[in-house]
Amino acid sequence: MSTTLLVEIAQFVAALAALIIIHELGHFIVARLLKVEVEEFGLGFPPRIATLFSAWGTRFSLNLLPFGGFVRLKGENDPSVPGGLAASKPWVRLSVLFAGPLANLLVGVILYALIFSKIGMPITNQVQIMDVAHNSPAAQAGLLPGDLILAVNGNKIDNTQALHDTIYANLDQPTRITFMRNEQEGETTLVPRSQPPEGEGAIGIVMGNPTRSVSVLTALPVGFTAVFEHGRELLAFPVRMIKGQTAPEEGRLVGFKGMFDIYQQVRQSEPLPNIPAGVNILGFFATITISLGILNLLPIPALDGGRILFVLPEMVLGRRIPPRYENAINLVSFAMLLMLLLFINLQDFFNPIALP
Predict the structure, then answer these.
(1) In this predicted model, what pLDDT tens digit does every residue of 84-105 receive, in sequence order?
(2) Which of 86, 93, 141, 248 is deepest in the core (most CB within 10 A)?
(3) CATH for 127-212?
(4) Where exactly are the structural domains of the chain?
């Protein structure tokens, strides 16, 4: 096994463990704030190697398996234990259960804010030439990457769709382009092609939006929007598969090896032009943490969302589902989830995901 592979494995495990620990830390912080006693906060999974220290009535432990962490709440499933989770009011239980997924989603917001602080925020009402194909009409007309397109035949251009539509309305006709370069306005004429070479458009440019530099704090609102859109896409994916709009192999679940295979490809891929190194890795872990948050909120018993599902009727109707039924359902569901995880992880080895 090469040193490079060992470093990649160590980085991946450390980052994934950090995201799981942050999830558990969300549960821990809210439980402590709402006076729910926490018996243990573990780094890694048992067996326990050592107790690091004890504070606030909680044992902080180091465990053998390094794939994340856990929090053990007092009386988690027994409402007869004073000071425990199950004995708490419904809104307290709901808050503690929701805090873990929320922590993962907030990390996603921060990661997206970091990404936008590195690549800049798009200025959506301006159109910039990102690349020019050799020998294309744009190249022959003297247009260069970085030029801003201001107008076509005197019609103002303020978004990429407007440029596309205007160019294609003037195929095979002399077309006047007004542009800005180095704060100086210029004008040129070209003829959009009705039959361009494969992979090129009518005038042979890649268009996009210019960006402006922003701080991480300034980018936070866009981070929230990005996480919302990412979560919506994740939840819509099964619906698109059912409708036949997405190939089943594109929606395949992956385990640790599958995620590591994707991480390797992301880490080794060539960065896009003008994109700082490391942004693609930040994007990968943003995807992982948002997925952890969303999947844990699904109404599946044994997951946070499933346990929240048991709390909601009590909050609405004032009647609690008997804990023995809840615990039995969670236990059976947990066993089924373990079998599903085992199947997914074995599939990663015997039928590795096909990376492009």
Answers:
(1) 999 999 999 999 999 999 999 9
(2) 93
(3) 2.30.42.10
(4) 86-120+218-356, 127-212
